[in-house]
Design brief:
heterodimer; A: mainly beta; four-stranded antiparallel sheet; 0% helix; B: four-stranded antiparallel sheet; globular
Chain lengths: 124, 113
């Protein structure tokens, strides 16, 4: 079964750090780009970050740039989101998602496989 | 940044009736090199992660019922549910992947009338 599973969420104080992991299974992980998307309670979706299949290309939303880093270990089929200097407004469910590849190895851009999400709560 | 504006914010539709959701981008999301619109639609049921419905503005993702269709090009897009089923009650989001930061619309909540 193709799936992504996030872990590492929890309660952290403002200014603290957390590291989220996204473990992939059921597909050739090293071929796929991965993105992180978050959703604050009762709110819409916010794109956060992108990492290329090799890890050589990375992007962040302005809201987290300089505080979050992203990395991947293709040998372990995992992507990591290191979150530092967390703020109350970072409270959200964090999803990792796979960038779709269409037939002919065409990268679609859309997200075809999502994890169930990891809840991050930033509060004192 | 490209701003994605969805309308309406919510709509109530009777079972078997048509639901139409609109999405407008603040600039074109059409890639000239391959003539593809980098616009996707997602469905999110309560307590669930989003599910991809439509990519490239009008291509249904694998396993998505044919009552879901996407149309539009450039800056104006539409998601249509031709005959609403009970399981279609959800929030629907559009997303552009034309440029970073990728952006989502604010969502449209579809309820049963």
């Amino acid at each position: 079964e193709v799936q992504l599973v996030e872990s590492g969420g929890g309660l952290v104080q403002p200014g603290g750090s957390l590291r989220l992991s996204c473990a992939a299974s059921g597909f050739t992980f090293s071929h796929y780009e991965i993105k992180w998307v978050r959703q604050a309670p009762g709110k819409g979706l916010e794109w956060l970050s992108y990492i290329s299949s090799s890890g050589s290309s990375i992007y962040f939303a302005d809201s987290v740039k300089g505080r979050f880093t992203i990395s991947r270990d293709n040998a372990k089929n995992s992507v990591f989101l290191q979150m530092n200097n967390l703020r109350a407004e970072d409270t959200a469910v964090y999803y990792c998602a796979r960038v779709m590849i269409a037939s002919g190895e065409v990268i679609v851009g859309a997200l075809d496989v999502w994890g169930q999400g990891a809840m991050v709560t930033v509060s004192s | 940044d490209i701003v994605m504006t969805q309308s309406p914010n919510s709509l109530a539709v009777s079972l078997g009736e048509r639901a139409t959701i609109n999405c407008r981008s603040s600039q074109s999301v059409l890639f000239d090199s391959n003539n593809k619109n980098y616009l996707a639609w997602y469905q999110q049921r309560p307590g669930q992660p989003p599910k991809l419905l439509i990519y490239w503005a009008s291509t249904r993702a694998s396993g998505v019922p044919d009552r879901f269709s996407g149309s539009g090009s450039g800056t104006d897009f539409t998601l249509t549910i031709s005959s609403l089923q009970a399981e279609d009650v959800a929030v629907y989001y559009c997303q552009q992947q034309y440029s970073t930061p990728e952006t989502f619309g604010g969502g449209t909540k579809v309820e049963l009338e």
